[in-house]
Amino acid sequence: MSLNNLETFLDAKPLFYDEIDYNRMPRIYSRIQAQLPKPKIIHIVGTNGKGTTGRFLSTALFRAGFRTGHYTSPHIMRFNERIWIDGADVKEDVLEAAHEKLQKILTKEESDSLSYFEYTTFLAMLCFSECEYVVLEAGLGGEYDATAVFVKILTVLTPVDKDHEAFLGESIEAITKTKLGAMAKKTLLAKQRYDIVERCAYEIAKEKGAKLYRVADMVSKEDEKTVLEVAKQEHLPMYLQENLQTAIAALQLLGVKYDAKSFANGRLFGRLSRIAPNIVVDVGHNPLAARCVKKALEGEKFVLVYNSYKDKDYEEILKILKPILKHVEIIPIEGERLAQKQTLQKTLKQLKIQYFPFEKIKKEQKYLVFGSFTVVEGFLKLYA
Has residue 37 got a pLDDT over 90? Predict the structure, then answer.
C-alpha cells in the first residue's frame, strides 16, 4: 500500500461534521489500545497557542535527549506537517508503514467510520512508536476530542477564547469546562485573558482531584532572561514569548533541564512568519489571534489578504485589525463552510474598510496574510 493510498483514503473522509459521534473514538481505542505505543503524553488544549507551545516543548524535549513526537493540526501545505518526530516532519515511508499497520488493527467498519481527525490521531500514535514523549495537540475541544482518549501525564491549557461555539459552548465558562473535561492529574494553566478560565480550572481540578499549576507562579527571573534571549534569536512577538513561558513551565513539571539553546529553531511556521521583507503570514482565525497580531504589528500599515469561513466572527476580527490596515484584498478559497462573498463585502462596507480582489503582490506594499490555515495555504500556492 503506497502513500497515495493513504491520501486517497483520507480524501474520502469529510473534514467537518454537523454532528459528531463522541463515543466512537473511546470505543475503538478501548478495543485496540493494547496494540498502540504507550509514550509519556502531554496533552495541549486551549483556543490559541497550542501549536507553538507544543513545538517549543517538543523541541526542548528532543534537545534534552528524548525521542519526541509532536502531533499538531491542521497542516498548511503537506499532511506530513501534522506529525513531527525528533526535529523533522514525518517521512513518507513511516506514514506508509503506520497506515498499513492501522488498517490491520482496525476492522473495515471501524476504519470507514472514523473521522479524518480520529483516523489521523491513531495514525500519528503508530508513527510515534519509538518516542519516549509525545506532545499531543487537541483538535477542536478537550473532553470529547479524539486526542483525549490517551493516558496523559500532563495537561496544558493555553489561552481560552470563543471559537467553534457550536461544538464547545457559547460562553467562556462553557468552553473552558469542555477544554478541561479530560484534564490530567497534573494540569498547567497558561496566562489567560478571562478570570473565569482560572476559576473554572480550579473548580474542575478540585472535582477531579487534580493538581493545578499556574505558569505565572513558575517562571523565574532567570527564565525571563532565557525567554528574552530566545525571542531575540527567533524574532518572537510577545504572544509567542508567552507560549514559550508556558513550555518552560511544562518542562519544569516534567523535571527536564533547559536553556536558550533548547528552543533554537523551535518556532512553528505560520505564526507571524515573515516570508519576505514585505509579507507576514499567520494562520490565526479568531478574535484572540487577531488581537495578538494587531499588538505585534502596531505602528505599521498592511494590506490584509483575507477570507473567512462563515462560522468565524469575521466582523469582530476585522474590527480588531482595522487600525493596522490600509485595505483588504479578498483571496479566493474553496470550501462548503466559506462565508458568502456578498456578506463579507457587506461587513467590510459597514466597517468602512476598503476592499478589492487579491491579484498579485506589489513590492511597495506590506502584506498580512491572515484568516485561516486555508487562506495561508491558498496564498502560498499563488505566491510560489
Answer: yes
Q: Torsions phi, psi of 78, nearest 5?
A: -130, 140
Q: Which of 224, 242, 263 is the last residue of a domain?
A: 263
Do the strands 355-357 and 273-276 form a parallel or antiparallel pair, or are they unpaired?
Answer: unpaired
**Which residues, listed in sequence order, are joined to residue 224 by a DSSP beta bridge?**
none
Containing domain of residue 358, as a range?
Answer: 273-383
User: How would you classify the pairing of strands 83-85 and 186-189?
Assistant: unpaired
H helices of the chain, in order, are 3-11, 24-32, 50-63, 92-105, 108-113, 116-127, 165-168, 172-179, 195-208, 215-218, 221-234, 238-254, 287-297, 314-321, 341-350, 373-383
Tell me the sheet residues that pair with 304: 328, 368
d(CA 6, CA 108): 15
pTM as predicted: 0.93
Together in a domain, 277 and 245 = no
Domain holding 137: CATH number?
Answer: 3.40.1190.10
269 and 279 Cβ atoms separated by less than 8 Å: no
Same domain, 100 and 197: yes
Q: Are residues 70 and 201 in the same domain?
A: yes
Counted domains in the chain = 2
Using one digit for the tens of pLDDT, what is the confidence trace for 140-185? 766 789 999 999 999 999 999 876 544 455 689 989 998 898 899 9
**Of 260, 265, 274, 250, whose CA–CA distance to 54 is shortest?**
250
- In tens, the pLDDT along 243-297 reads 999 999 999 999 999 999 999 999 999 999 999 999 999 999 899 999 999 999 9
Work out whether the CA dihedral 108, 112, 118, 123 comes out positive or negative: positive
- 342 in a domain, yes or no? yes
- Output the CA torsion sign for 51, 304, 313, 80: negative
Judgement on whether residues 241 and 337 belong to the same structural domain of the protein: no
pLDDT band at 323 (very low <50, low <70, confident <90, very high): very high
